[in-house]
Amino acid sequence: MRPGRSRYVTSSPTKRAEKARRRDAPQLPGAPLAPRLKAAAHANESITTLVSQVEARLERNPQDGRGWEVLAPVYLRLGRFDDAAKAWRKVIALNGESADRQANLGEALVGANNGIVTADAKSAFDRALALDPHQIKSKFFVGVAAQQDGKRDQAAEIWRGMLKDAPPDAP
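RE: above sequence
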């Protein structure tokens, strides 16, 4: 045995690695709170900085459809629904419409209206389904619109159809 070494091992290499992983992984609830909060604040600052940079670039080049298409889902994810709807409208105007773009516009409009499927949002979902009758997001929200309009049987029929058409491994 080497000098200064204990005969008894108090922690295995695996346990030490697990402790380090927990300490360095802010998303784990078992890790200390202060490092997790610091990491989360840094991540938010990074996202805010990146969004600001893209916004500045788009101010200089507002016809950059690709830039708007990158920014729109980020706005949606950040809960900036009005900005997301404006961005999706720009994407559609610059890059052309598609079922997915119309569905994403509708989703942003629903978010901007606190979960209510407005006539404008329903129009976007209907347009998406006209372009692609299998557009799943649009089907779901058309069902939500029917439910919100008091048409529960119609909503249930839409959602049952979605379940019937879903692949066996769908979540």
